[in-house]
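pinging the channel bc i need a second pair of eyes. not urgent but kinda urgent?? the chain im working w is below, pasted from the shared doc
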Amino acid sequence: MSKHPRRESPTKAARAQTEARTQAKAARAQAEAEQAQAEQAEAKTKLAKEQDAAMAGALQEDEAHRQADLEEVAVKEAEAVPDWPPDS
């Protein structure tokens, strides 16, 4: 046996280097995909909050209109009822 350490063949070293680059690219792509998913989830959450706020505002406005309509009807009904007992 030789006392000299064996060196890797240049082809094997090139393949290992190519594999390392490929794995690094895959890791970067995975990180970018995860970042994109996180940003998408954040955007969906923000949109849902905005929609909830808009819906709450619309419901509140609708309730105010409903109350105003009820008060208007009550006034009209009160005006339509004759005084009792009639003034004689």
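so The mean pLDDT is 91. and The longest helix spans residues 10-80. — does that match what u expected or am i reading it wrong
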